Amino acid sequence: MMRILLYLVVALGGAGLAVQAVWNARLRTATGSPILTVLISVFITFVCVLLTWASGTTARGTVPAFGSIPKWAWFGGVFAGFFLLSSLIAVPRLGAAAVFSLVIAGQLIAAVILDATGAFGVTQIPLNPMRMLGTGLLLAGVVLIQRN
User: pTM for this structure?
Assistant: First the structure.
């Protein structure tokens, strides 16, 4: 039951990303600036996450010493900013489905490589025929969505 709930929460997060991209694209038309739009979006994200953290509904944790973890672990937010900027520029031109099929393709290819290599401490999951078939079918879906 907990696993199904986790699937639903992750799927809801993915749906939220699609809505976020459309909302940000609309905000960009009002601001006239992709960078200002990303700054507003990140600020709103920061406030929401800060309020959730301050509420105590999740573990508060501690900030680790800079040298105690690999340097790359500090820079995950770079990809969030890049995603925000690229999606808000692309959605008005390509449409939400096209953009997100490309996002999913990029995520899938990177995830399969990360799993297969165990890079960055990810649990290594070997590439096998079923994973290759699943990846191929999802990528075929991306191609089909791109066709007008």
Answer: 0.78
pLDDT of residue 148: 67
Residue that has been written with the tokens 């075929």 in this structure: 140
Q: Which of 82, 99, 103, 89 is nearest to 31 (CA)?
A: 89
Establish how many alpha carbons lie within 13 A of residue 81's alpha carbon, considering only the half-sphere containing its beta carbon: 10
Q: Are 41 and 84 in contact (CB under 8 A)?
A: yes
Helices H / strands E in the chain, number of each? 5, 0
The vertex-67 CA angle with 63 and 71, nearest 5°, equals 90
Residue 62 token pair = 């501690």
Which tens digits make up the pLDDT trace of 17-50? 889 999 999 999 999 999 999 999 999 999 999 9
Q: Calculate the dihedral angle through the C-alpha atoms of 23, 29, 31, 36, rounding to the nearest 10 degrees.
A: 60
Q: DSSP per residue over 39-91, as a string?
A: HHHHHHHHHHHHHHHHHTSS----PPPGGGS-GGGGGTHHHHHHHHHHHHHHH
User: For 101-143, what is each residue's pLDDT tens digit?
Assistant: 889 889 999 999 999 999 999 999 999 999 999 999 988 988 8
Q: What pLDDT score does 28 carry?
A: 95
Q: What is the token pair recorded at 33?
A: 């600036």
